[in-house]
Amino acid sequence: MNEDTLIRLHKYIADQGVASRRAAEAMIAAGRVTVNGRVVTEMGMKIDPGRDSVRVDGEPLGSRPRLRYILLHKPAGYICSAHDERGRRTVLDLLSGVNERVYPVGRLDYDTSGLLLLTNDGDLTHHLLHPSHQVEKTYLALVEKCPEQATLEHLRRGVKLSDGITAPAKARLLRRQTDGALVEISIHEGRNRQVKRMFEAVGCPVKHLKRIRLAFLDVKQLALGEWRELSLDEVNRLKQL
After folding, report:
1. Most buried one in 34, 90, 173, 238, CB count within 10 A?
2. pTM for the model
3. Percentage of residues in the chain having pLDDT higher than 70
4. Which residues are catalytically annotated?
């Protein structure tokens, strides 16, 4: 047996997306895990994923791709696609070490930065994108013209676009700047280029846009281009939205 291929059992269970490492240890201690048909309860056991058969509650592991939940701080200049016929960089180029095929949950424009969630969990993706669940997304918009109070109220009531009137948004002026103004806006719809189109419709074109939150998630601890795995608690909270 090649020592380089061995991995601790509780880590392997966690890597398969079944549970956290601590919860995996509890599963082992409770006799819920078998290796090659034998119940294993001791901690620290190592297995070879390529040779050993691991089951949790009778369900084999390794029979399906590991579910990945990735929070990326997307820089501008990347597209939210697996490939680009024009040869532009994609967000997948930033995910070094991620072997599973993951997909963006929604999209950010090429020139938009900020929070992007990627996963191969199709059920969660559907859940987060479905309009009925009203998952809130918050953006910082640098606009060319400082909006008046009436303009902010217009955004809050809903803006008429070519594909209909938008749902009411949350909007507040953060500060005036020499080159325009910084506005925070929160929406729960997911129309194409929606935030930019809303500001264009009220006469305040967007110069730069950044998504700073998705529900309770943010990218404050991530530098541009960095990513991290969501914790099991964060995944569960997203599923409960």
Report:
1. 238
2. 0.73
3. 97
4. 109
